[in-house]
Amino acid sequence: MDLILPEILTNAPSHVCRKWRHVVLSSPSLWTSITVNTKASEDIENHLTSFRFLLQKALQNSKDAPLQIQIGNMSLCRPEVEVAFMELLWPHRAHWASFEIRRFSGDGISTWRKQRQLSKSQDKAMPALRSLGLSLSMMRGAEEFLALFDESPALDKLSLRGFPGEDVDAATIGSLNIRWYNIRTLALTPYQTPHVELADLLGKMENLTVLRLSMLRLYDDEALIPSQTSQNFPELEAFMLSDTKDLGEPSELLPQIYAPLLRVLSLDRTSPEILDSFITNTIECNIIKLDIHHLESDEPASFTEVLARLPKLSLQSKLEPEVFLQVIQRLGELICPELEDLAFLSEEDCEPGLHSSILDAIADFLEARWPVDVLQSSASVDHFPPSITLQPVPRRTTRAHLRLQCPGVLDRVDQSTGQSAEPALERLRAVASRRQDDIDVDVGWRSYSNIVSRSYHFTLPVARDSAEVVLDEVKCDELGNDWNDGEFYEIQMVYSSM
């Protein structure tokens, strides 16, 4: 890199034509995303002069536009690289809109502290910073590092890995001059759990809308919040709890949470009893999206009884095949009348005969939920009249998706019984074809190499109030999933007007 003049490197994107050069150099928004992959730390260290020039040029060209900064594991680099970063980035802190760093050491912190002490009091603030992601594990001076961001009045999205943990505790963090009541999205990956302190800190976030907790490196006898503590989240709409250690027991945290506005619930493992207890504690359950990776229950029917208490549920996923079959069989009884999305995922094969049963249950569900005019019921599978009458829907209908996903489960022939699933598949296709204006079916099978995954995809009519604002989805993308680099999440609530 040092063999090429830095001036040439920074101007290379504009060397297409004169007009394009003008666009590149006069558009600050093209220079606002700064991403540094520290896995190539040797390249940075060997060409530090050129790298400093490139970063400085990008910061200058961005002018006053909001900056999106994402930095990898700085502990992989030599101290002088950290210092160079901090010296260049800190003067532009007033324009940081998001800042994420996977890991840091104490050398860069001391550089920031010195520069902050030299700054005027009004220059310490980060007025544009809205999203902050930090890894505090194995960091010297973790509290001091987080304190650098306490003058961030617009901060509403926070992701902390290794918190609470050995290097930082909730009581110390809670005492920082951070406007906790402004935080609306919070993602925590705790390493240790000082129970009372964490509960107190969460209690300060009264406007929290999205909460993600990734349980990591916890002892089996530890609980995230003491059993006698009830946590009130009056504005919480989405709660995601993952158990990366796989403790093997359903979480007891859910019944301790009171969230009357909760609409999205995602759990690694739970039981129908725990889920039912949570619903009972909620005055009016508004859950529309439910994800359960592992359902701890020997009786699938008990889970369908829980679903019957969720009239607004529209998305349900990650069920075991046996539970999925029970749910499909009950859906025809008009439980979950607004269900649009249903999926089950399993790495294991189904029990003998379950392949055909699942397909038949889906067909029964479609016939019960969307009956076709009985006069057309004897039509040929291959030739249908152009006009098919559906039962009237009282409100305006929109097309919605019911996805039935089953990777690694279905075979054309049940290997244990030799029974072919083709008749059940043909019946399902026929039922769907009779509703061809409203239902699309895409059915796949397991390949002999067990590599190709299968999915069902249906498009169904669902009644919606035209004035209703609905939650389409909750995006939760992992920005980093390497243990050494840390783990951060971009969580976004996506709404639309119907």
From TrEMBL:
<dbReference type="InterPro" id="IPR032675">
    <property type="entry name" value="LRR_dom_sf"/>
</dbReference>
<protein>
    <submittedName>
        <fullName>Uncharacterized protein</fullName>
    </submittedName>
</protein>
